Amino acid sequence: MNQKIEVESAGEVSPHNQALYEAGKNILVESINTGGDFCKFMTTTTIGAIPAYLALLKLVLPKDYPLKSYDDFLFFLPAALLLISTIVFVIGYFPQKGALPLDLPAEIERERSATINHRQDMQRGASLSFALR
Fold first, then answer.
1. What is the 3-state secondary structure (H, E, C) of 9-65?
2. pTM, full prediction
3. Domain boundaries defined on the chain
């Protein structure tokens, strides 16, 4: 049962298959960048929403309105949620620490998947905080 298998030439790769290989390569490589770009965009969006919200709050409240009671704290809760969203998006944008052995494809795939999962978790948490505001 120790038969050797000989592989004959498979021929040239068709242009269609070459395009599919390139598309697969781009999906694999760009999947990490996409999550980072989203976190970067949302960081600037949420941090810019804080002064916009506070400006609208100042516009709506009377000029001499005293913010002294516990209920008045609720006016600032959306700004605090936006700040939390910003912090979580920043954490999602930062690269993960760790060593990556380039000679082990399984380790590269594991690190790639871990990075994508980490960014997705941060995006979900920050988006939830952003939506709650």
1. CCCCCCHHHHHHHHHHHHHHHHHHHHHHHHHHHHHHHHHHHHHHHHHHHHHHCCCCC
2. 0.69
3. 17-132
